[in-house]
Amino acid sequence: MLVGLRLQNVALIDSLELTFQQGFTVLTGETGAGKSLLLDALDALFGGKQSLSVSRLLRPGSTTGHIEATFSVNAAVDYWLNSEGFEAEDNEILVTREWRLKEARLTNRCRLNGIVINRQQIAALRPLLIDLTVQGQTQQLFSTSNQLLWLDRLGALSAKETLDEVKKSWNVWYQAFLSLEKALLEQDERKKHFQDLEDLLKELNEAELNDPCEDRKLEIEEDRLVNGVRLREGLVVLLSRLYEGSDEFPSVVDQVGVCMQELKSLIKLDISLTNCFDKTFNLYTEFNELISQLQEYGSLLESDSSRLDQVQERLVKLKRLQKCHNLDLPQLLQRRDELRVSHLSNDIEALIKKLKVNEELAREKRDRNNLTLTKVRKEVALQFESDLMKYLRPLGLLNVCFKVQVNESKPNEKGADTVQFLFSANPGQSLAPLVDVASGGEMSRFLLALKTVLSQVDGSSTLLFDEIDSGVSGRVSGAIAHVLKDLAAKRQVFCVTHQPLVAAVAHHHFRVVKFVENGVTRSDVSCLSNMEDRQSELAELAGGDFAEARVYAASLLDQQAA
After folding, report:
1. What does the pLDDT average to over 393-403?
2. What is the rounded CA–CA span in Å between residue 11 and residue 53?
3. Fewer CB within 10 Å of terminal CB in the chain, N or C?
């Protein structure tokens, strides 16, 4: 339970320290006095919506703010503390949040027993310590996901194991489903890849690649063909000088031949010139070979005149292949040979067959667990309907009808159900979704009844209600008062109220007042510990501190005392 609360520089409060006890506690005061401030502070402490607008909570002119709450520890909280590595001190924990405003930048930190904790930790700890119901929270009742969540909380004892199995089996199925989808996608990608390889092999085969140096040879041939006229002219000059000659200028071969004849004559005179003859003979032979090569080359220059077009067309084809596949000619030949010996087969079919079996088995188990959970939920729904009706009728809804409709939905990790709360408050009115037919007052009473039923199965967190009794008649507010008091027998309950009937049944009563001091508006909270103070405050709630109101207030207190 909430044992103590300390505020510093929060809204209209400069400094405040309160202690609380078990039972039913009410907070009263004039409109605008700041009654809801204590609940807002607790919400901000645990990272609720109020923490998002902390600039509104920070006292004007202050650069720091501080909220501190002390809670006694029960088994659920103690288990959480142990799992997170914390320890209670004297069976109590201290939760604090501090704000600092520096250079127009607001920062805050939350601590547990002086140790900084993160958002996830404070969010997990919150439901174990407080359950806050504020004005406008009836919107939560409109959400079918919330309705399913409440139903599962009510069936926690009987459905927990089934819920765990549902989540586990759904996760197993989902992973099997993803594996199958991935394999099917891979199969499609492989088929496309294999088709691309087949197309490449076909293209390379049609290109008739054989020589890794073909492109270079063709480039040389292209140069020769393009420069054929100049090459022929040069060849004529060379052959003329080397072989043909003229009367005026004998050819090189003729000149070397004359030299050979002269050396033969000289050898007869000096045998040592034989070596020179041999060299001259070798020159004669090499010149003749050179002439033969030039003549053969000349015959190539006289070949088919369309050869240039063929060469250039082949070069264009080879360069296109190299550029398209980003491979040079030797690499293209190597790639073709690799594809020729490889087996372009798809070996994923067996894997897909196995994955389909796994997915089907996992889906069948998932569906079986979902059916079991649906059965449990429908049983819990019947008990919930019965339990809720016990509180709705005493709250002034004498003709109320309520039903939990469990419908089938697309499976997920929470099962295969959607839940719809059906409601009717008047005779002859058909059951319809709660959001469509319930008035504001009916929704508030429904929420109170729901919280009461949930309190029977949930942990021992402190329940806080912000004007849960607004917009109802005196008779209904009396019924709400008794529900809250009965609820306080099991849980610590706080309620901000304007209703004297509710305030009168409380075990503890705090009054919130607003005043101006030295031009500064402040709020203060005091505990009404004696009957006279409580009577005076109840009289104010009843319409003013006059004789009739005081008599009415005294009668309310006497009834409770009796």
Report:
1. 88
2. 12
3. C
CA distances from 270 to 259, 273, 274, 329, 348 (A): 16, 6, 8, 61, 90
List the one residue out of 399, 405, 433 whose CA is nearest residue 419: 405
| Best CA proximity match to 33, nearest among 558, 547, 537 | 537
Question: In 3D, which of 33, 99, 39, 48 has the Cα closest to residue 69?
Answer: 39
Record the tokens describing residue 275, joined without a space: 């070596």
Q: Is 248 left (phi over 0), alpha (psi -120 to 50) or beta?
A: alpha
Rounded (10°) CA dihedral 382, 149, 400, 481 = 120
Q: Is 357 helix (H, G, I), strand (E, B) or coil?
A: helix
Q: CA neighbours within 13 Å on the CB side: how many for 31? A: 2
Cα–Cα distance measured from residue 382 to residue 404, given in angstroms and rounded to the nearest whole number: 8
pLDDT band at 342 (very low <50, low <70, confident <90, very high): low
Question: How many Å apart are CA 528 and CA 225, to the nearest integer?
Answer: 116
To the nearest 10 degrees (0 to 180), the angle between helices 228-239 and 214-226 is 80
Q: Where are the alpha helices (DSSP H) in 510-546?
A: 531-542
Q: Is the pLDDT of residue 190 over 80?
A: no
Q: CA distances (Å), 317 to each of 325, 374, 452, in order? A: 13, 69, 85
List pLDDT tens digits, range 234-288.
887 888 888 777 667 788 888 888 898 889 888 988 889 899 999 999 999 998 9
pLDDT tens for 372-385 read 999 999 999 999 99
CATH 3.40.50.300 boundaries in the chain:
1-135+460-529
Q: What angle do CA 439, 146, 53 make, to 5 degrees?
A: 85
- Rg of the chain on CA atoms, in Å: 50
Q: Token pair for residue 525?
A: 């909270």
Packing angle, helices 349-392 and 156-206, rounded to 10: 150
Q: For 1-135+460-529, which CATH superfamily applies?
A: P-loop containing nucleotide triphosphate hydrolases (3.40.50.300)
Higher pLDDT, 366 or 446: 366
pLDDT one-digit tens code per residue, 226-241? 777 677 778 878 888 8
Residue 20 has pLDDT above 80, yes or no: yes
Out of 45-49, 325-329, 336-340, 472-476, least confident range: 472-476
